[in-house]
């Protein structure tokens, strides 16, 4: 279905210069597009909750406040009606395939030139998928365990998702409480709820679960 009204687009990337490039690409695709920007997952979630109804989310794979594919998975679970495009310097076929399997509508390598970025944005907003030329899907299907972890992450509340992310980085409850500006008892309650949702017995199992959602590291 072709977009007839100027779209609302949200760019979530922690690199200011690349946000500028994505904004230029969005305006090249749709001259009157409304484009908002977020430099961290928390900012993105706030804009998603308070901002306009977005027609597209351009999401950096490595964002502060998320780990690996967890940001993509969470957004697809919370906002299934909004297409999400992963933007990353990691353009290995394996990474692209995993992003698409986790629900992305497209994958734009950061090495893509501006006209092709604009074409990708236009293609996806109009209802199709877009991956870089030469991409070979191979056999990168998600394993059952990874699918189960993804389904659980997608069902977390916003606060639980943030606790899960900070916990997976090795933070203690006291550190998480300080980072989130809440009481330590509140964090403990969230951790208990997260353990129950994952069917886990300890924090170590949650960290292992988060690691299953990692993307292969490459320079961003």
From TrEMBL:
Any one GO molecular-function label of the UniProt entry: DNA binding
Signal peptide per UniProt: none
Keywords: DNA-binding, Phosphoprotein
PROSITE patterns: HTH_LUXR_1, HTH_LUXR_2, RESPONSE_REGULATORY
Pfam families: GerE, Response_reg
Residue ranges occupied by any HTH luxR-type domain in the UniProt entry: 149-214
Classification via InterPro entries: CheY-like_superfamily (IPR011006), EvgA-like (IPR051015), NreC/VraR/RcsB-like_REC (IPR058245), Sig_transdc_resp-reg_C-effctor (IPR016032), Sig_transdc_resp-reg_receiver (IPR001789), Tscrpt_reg_LuxR_C (IPR000792)
Presence of the UniProt keyword Kinase in the record: no
Keyword DNA-binding: yes
Residue intervals of the Response regulatory domain: 8-125
GO BP field: phosphorelay signal transduction system; regulation of DNA-templated transcription
Alphabetized PANTHER family for the sequence: HTH-TYPE TRANSCRIPTIONAL REGULATOR YHJB-RELATED
Protein's name according to its UniProt entry: Transcriptional regulator, LuxR family
Species lineage: unclassified sequences, metagenomes, ecological metagenomes
């Amino acid at each position: 279905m072709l977009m007839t009204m100027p779209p609302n687009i949200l760019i979530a990337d922690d690199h200011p210069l690349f946000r500028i490039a994505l904004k230029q690409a969005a305006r090249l695709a749709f001259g009157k597009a409304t484009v908002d920007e977020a430099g961290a997952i928390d900012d993105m979630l706030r804009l998603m909750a308070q901002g306009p109804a977005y027609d597209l989310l351009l999401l950096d794979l490595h964002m502060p406040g998320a780990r690996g594919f967890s940001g993509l998975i969470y957004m697809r679970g919370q906002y299934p009606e909004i297409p999400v495009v992963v933007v990353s310097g990691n353009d290995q076929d394996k990474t692209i395939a995993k992003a698409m399997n986790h629900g992305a509508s497209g994958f734009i390598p950061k090495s893509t030139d501006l006209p092709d970025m604009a074409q990708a944005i236009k293609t996806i907003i109009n209802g199709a998928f877009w991956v870089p030329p030469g991409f070979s899907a191979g056999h990168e299907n998600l394993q059952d365990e990874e699918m189960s972890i993804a389904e659980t992450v997608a069902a977390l509340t916003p606060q639980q998702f943030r606790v899960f992310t900070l916990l997976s980085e090795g933070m203690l409850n006291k550190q998480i409480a300080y980072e989130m500006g809440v009481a330590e008892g509140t964090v403990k309650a969230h951790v208990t709820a997260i353990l129950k949702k994952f069917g886990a017995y300890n924090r170590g199992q949650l960290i292992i679960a988060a690691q299953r959602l990692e993307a292969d590291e490459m320079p961003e």
